[in-house]
């Protein structure tokens, strides 16, 4: 049985109460989680303000552009986060979703290590450029792993993101 937007609500309710978590790994790949589930997850993680290490794997789900907005509340409140691995590959995220994600990630000014996996979505050139604000604002970022392999060709230069 796969986890969907309805069945993830129990996990989200429990996570909301885990306010002292420092490290969290959530492997939720190969499910049917969509925008509603992603939004609930973002709201739940918002309460985990002490997190310093987060691995969130949501690859192979049903997340589209609106789902990336749902992660925003978590990114706004988890200001102590230093290490983030976010895997959203094989969803249906487009240019707007990638830009939303870039804006949300820009809130993590203490981030030192970021692994961002967005392969096999529909991000395109504009979406890739929309990730720029995240890298520009994360002045403490020392390690970056970025995967953007797409079905269509992306004319993208990593150097653009790393210039300060």
UniProtKB/TrEMBL annotation:
Coiled coil: none annotated. This is Cyclic nucleotide-binding domain protein. The keyword Thylakoid does not apply. The keyword Nuclease does not apply. GO terms for molecular function: GTPase activator activity; small GTPase binding. GO terms for biological process: nucleocytoplasmic transport. Keywords: GTPase activation, Leucine-rich repeat, Repeat. One of its GO terms (cellular component) is perinuclear region of cytoplasm.
């Amino acid at each position: 049985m796969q986890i969907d937007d309805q069945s993830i609500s129990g996990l989200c309710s429990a996570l909301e109460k885990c306010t002292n978590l420092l490290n969290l790994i959530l492997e939720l790949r190969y499910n049917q989680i969509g925008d509603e589930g992603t939004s609930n997850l973002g709201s739940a993680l918002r309460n985990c303000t002490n997190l310093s290490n987060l691995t969130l794997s949501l690859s192979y789900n049903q997340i589209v552009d609106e789902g990336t907005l749902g992660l925003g509340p978590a990114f706004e409140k988890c200001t102590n986060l230093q290490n983030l691995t976010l895997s959203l590959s094989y969803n249906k995220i487009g240019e707007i979703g990638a830009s939303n994600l870039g804006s949300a990630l820009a809130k993590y000014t203490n981030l030192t290590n970021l692994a961002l996996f967005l392969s096999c979505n529909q991000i395109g050139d504009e979406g890739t450029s929309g990730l720029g604000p995240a890298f520009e604002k994360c002045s403490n970022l020392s390690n970056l792993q970025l995967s953007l392999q797409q079905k269509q060709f992306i004319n993208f230069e990593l150097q653009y993101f790393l210039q300060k």
